[in-house]
Amino acid sequence: MGLSCHLQSLPTGAGADIKSLAARFPEGPTRIAAALRELEAHGYLRRERHRTETGRIVTRTVSCNQPHASRREPVDTGCPPAKRTPPPSRRTGPKALPAVPQPSSTAPALLQTALDLLAGLRRHDSRLLLSATDTAHLVPGVAAWLERDVAPAAVRHALTAGLPDQPLRRPAALLAHRLADRLPPPPPFRTRSAAVPPPRLPLQNCDGCDRGFRAPETESHCRDCRTAAASPP
């Protein structure tokens, strides 16, 4: 049967003599010849002698997939035809969620606050029960709101207010759209108040050593002279 299937798979004009087949299979020429005779005896193989235009006698081997079948081109296998199955339909995965704003800071406390806010949305609307994957996608968007000085309660209101009455097919996609579409502007830029420099003390000469020093005008001696005067003799 293996030899018959191989013959059925050969294109027209391919070599099907014992030498060519013995080079293809591990069995020797003797077993190949016996297998060909068995196929011929059961009607799966015909060997016909023809004279070419040059007068040479050649043997043409015809393989059939049914005993005593009419002559056919050896392009099919003699094995039962495989069942043709329609190509599988191309199923695309779930559509990607809309992009969300990205925060400039990834501080753990900021991200944890955003995570807690998203996890608590289901308490306000049971339809907003989010998967772990959807939550991870939305956390940066919520963090971007929080770092813009938006209170968590205000973020929650922006995400849950005015939801449609019908079932939400993709609640995470709706939340992602709101986070991007309703993102508030950054808070007003606040400059840090400059520290008031200490008053600059006047420069004067010490009455004791005539060395210049800075001190209130009530002081007439430098620190060294004051220390020396205060020290016991």
Automatic annotation (TrEMBL):
Top-level lineage group: Bacteria
Region called Disordered, residue ranges: 64-105, 181-201
Protein name: Helix-turn-helix domain-containing protein
Organism: Streptomyces violaceorubidus
